[in-house]
Amino acid sequence: MSALRERLQNSKDLVFTVEFPVIDGGGMAAVEKNVARLSPWFVAANSTDNTAAHAHASNLSVAIAMKNFGLEPILQIVCRDKNRIAIQADMAGANLHGIENIALLTGDDVTAGDEPEARRVFDLDGPQAVNVASILNSGTYLSGRKLQPAPNFFISAVENPFTHPFDYRVQRAIKKHEAGAQMLQLQIGYHPDRLENFARGVHALAPDLALLPSVVLVKSSKPLNFMNDKVPGIDVPADVIARVASAEDQSEAAYQLALEQCKHALTLPGVRGIHVTDFRHDDTLERLMTDLGRTPHNL
Amino acid sequence: MALESAGRKLLPLLLTVEHGLKKPVWGCQMCGQCVLHSTGMVCPMTCPKTLRNGPCGGVREDGHCEVKPEMQCVWVKAYERKDKLHLPQIWKDHYNELRPPVDMRLKGTSSWINLITKRDAWLPAGWRARKESQK
Ligand code: SF4
Asked: Do B98 and A178 touch (CB under 8 A)?
């Protein structure tokens, strides 16, 4: 059984997951180094699928490498680049390699990346992809053809509580849950009130659905501005940006903001942990985990 | 079968009428498996990602589309309209149902004929089996 599932379903412990850095250089040594850094703190890490519509070493290849080096992968599969046949092939490949955690996402558009001229696929959408993973779990492909041994996927998805239509986001989360998702990693967001409404709404309807809000570690107000201006679906209020921008020590102010976000999120119903994305690449990740009361290797 | 052959004869006429009506009003893309009734009469195929199950996470703060910032998100519009329009309750209730993947073979065919012949109710065997097991 995947350690992630085990932790979520058989314990009340908090669960921390992390975005595994994309691999464009450094070869296997880069994977190994990142695993060594992250595995003391995180039960599992997302092996991303051409994140932000940029090509990188593939989702499955990095997931297999991570697993070999000793960190449990969450294999992300995005609907933008692959049709239903290729998506199922990713799933069957994961099954072959004993990878159980999979996360299904609609994905951002090709226009978000560095090859906006590419063809977008979206043959399936996020909720459909979740349902297809559930179908594979029952021992067949979408077509009904047998797949054996049947996978034992721990299926997750992503939802954005921070954008329109706000009250529909809860229903959409439930739709993914009914399609088979048992965990939702949430989009990065800077409106605690929206997160709170979403968590309460989801928890009332699906108390077993584990929510992992995302927190991103940045060093200054620059990336906050970037997200606000350039990443559709992320709104960073002016006062949040100003709080970091006007601080004497921007790096410290940005850290305190992230720590506050974690502490707030962990008080909400249905929230079982945090998903961390690190854009700082210094020792702040370790600091954050320590400040949240974690000790290394005590996942 | 009789229905099917009648449908086949009517096909060219119906295709023209359906497209002629639905294209200007709803921007119909002739996917051949119409879900307009359950989406507040907003065609999900006009979403740049052709999503059939609700809005992606990229909706902008002003409710506009991630891909086409000048356009209101199709699903935001659908969500607003489904409550505003006087549609039968059952259609409104279908808003959040899990719609199956599009059958690409039906593209360019008449959804009216496909509805009459039940061709649009075809599902891949795996999808059908899961749906039945959930009932
Ligand atoms: S923002 Fe709305 S219309 Fe645009 S791609 Fe996403 S779901 Fe489709």
From this structure: yes
